[in-house]
Amino acid sequence: MGEHPSPGPAVAACAEAERIEELEPEAEEQPPAAPEDFDPGNTGYISTCKFRSLLESQSSKLDPHKREVLLALADSHADGQICYQDFVNLMSNKRSNSFRQAILQGNRRLCSKALLEEKGLNFSQRLIRHVAYETLPREIDRKWYYDSYTCCPPPWFMITVTLLEVAFFLYNGVSLDQFVLQVTHPRYLKNSLVYHPQLRAQAWRYLTYIFMHAGIEHLGLNVVLQLLVGVPLEMVHGATRIALVYVAGVVAGSLAVSVADMTAPVVGSSGGVYALVSAHLANIVMNWSGMKCQFKLLRMAVALICMSMEFGRAVWLRFHPSAYPPCPHPSFVAHLGGVAVGITLGVVILRNYEQRLQDQSLWWIFVAMYTVFVLFAVFWNIFAYTLLDLKLPPPP
Predict the structure, then answer these.
(1) What are the phi and psi torsion angles at 82 (to 5°)?
(2) What does the pLDDT read at residue 206?
(3) CA dihedral 130, 234, 170, 329 (to 10 degrees)
(4) Of 196, 218, 237, 335, catalytic
(5) Is 192 annotated as catalytic?
(6) I want to staple 384 with a disulfide (CB 3.0 to 4.6 A). Which of 172, 197, 360, 380 is the partner?
(7) Residue 106 reports pLDDT greater than 50
(8) Residue 127 CA to chain centroid, in angstroms?
(9) What is the C-alpha separation between 27 and 42, in angstroms, rounded?
(10) Which of 76, 269, 270, 278 is catalytic?
(11) What residues have CB less than 8 Å from 275, skipping those under 6 apart?
């Protein structure tokens, strides 16, 4: 095996690689220098000497420990040059995998306390630190997230979806004059958002059914779970990843019902909620030793109890005598579709904080599996109902 480049003299003694810190947030506002200033030949690389001179000129704006980490990067390149893109990423406070790998090559040890030990934080800082410890298993990721999170943009996706679900529920409650077990009202399924097997050709129903809930007890549990779990996850992983897990769980839920419970309608956001919660719980179990959130067992137990209560309610309702026979009450299979998405696609999306999804082979495997399932369900919906000569309930 080849020898690792020896670390610079500024990188001294004491801690693990996960204790590495990055640029101060104040440096984030400093724009990187123009390429021609450090790379006049347009080669894509800059010399370590020029990199060192830049660090010296910016030394007053950098924490001493963090400056030493950057100097370690310069010293780890024996060829005397650094990729200009790495340089731009560093100076713009953008996470760089190549930067982290270069720093992790030597036997560096920086003296720094764990994030949890920092004192004198205000409420917003404590909240961000709490979110970091609830969702990320590695100290280096927690510190990076804590230093770089700006709440811009805020967790808008989960908040928007929740507000829409509450708004539609209140509207239906007023129009039906019923808030508890709305689904038992004779006019409930006439809403154009509900998934109904007779109307499965209307593709939007496979997604819009999340805005219709069986009653306030159904809405309440879903809203509590998606706010307590979904909002912190979105704060860490961003709206794009969380929306992907949520929507994939929602679509998988309605498609699973159309395959496994072919005569039943579907309402509620449980497919998306269960995808997020199951992905988060699976991530905690897989990284148990690294997760430093308090009362891990208690939190998992509470989440599982809430999910079990909501799932038990759905099973009971499915087999409860229908208020409008021959159409049964909504199916519970959507919950299982959400769990399946969460422990496969969701775990991959939430597992690695800084790695791009395109770089993960397991991501492509699960995407292919999900695509095959969707295609199978589509063809099933086109042909199976006719081939099985299934008697469906009349349209609402």
Answers:
(1) -125, 140
(2) 96
(3) -110
(4) 335
(5) no
(6) 380
(7) no
(8) 18
(9) 25
(10) 270
(11) 245, 246, 248, 249, 250, 252, 338, 339, 341, 342, 345, 346
What is the tens place of the pLDDT at every residue in 294-353?
A: 777 887 888 889 889 889 989 998 888 776 677 788 999 999 999 999 999 998 888 777
Radius of gyration of the chain (CA): 26
| Cα–Cα distance, 216 to 30 (Å, whole number) | 50
Query: Which residue, among 252, 256, 258, 255, has the nearest Cα to 198 in the 3D structure?
Result: 258
Closest-CA residue to 166 (of 208, 212, 233): 212
Cα dist. 344→91, 279, 349, 366 in Å? Answer: 36, 8, 9, 6
State how far the alpha carbon of 108 is from the alpha carbons of 69, 149, 369, in Å: 9, 26, 42
Length of the chain as a residue count: 396
Q: Is 14 a residue whose pLDDT tops 50?
A: no
Q: What is the pLDDT of residues 38-73, one digit of tens each?
A: 667 667 677 777 777 777 776 666 665 556 656 665
- Of 261, 264, 274, the closest CA to residue 311 belongs to 274
Give phi and psi for 291, each to the nearest 5.
-70, 125
Contacts of 272 (CB under 8 A, 6+ apart): 161, 210, 226, 245, 246, 247, 249, 250, 253, 338
Instruction: For residue 211, count CB atoms less than 10 angstroms from its CB and return exposed for 0-12, middle for 13-18, buried for 19 or more.
Output: buried
Residue 333's nearest CA partner among 310, 314, 319 is 314
Position of tokens 């920086």?
110
Cα separation values, 164 from 155, 214, 377, Å = 15, 15, 28
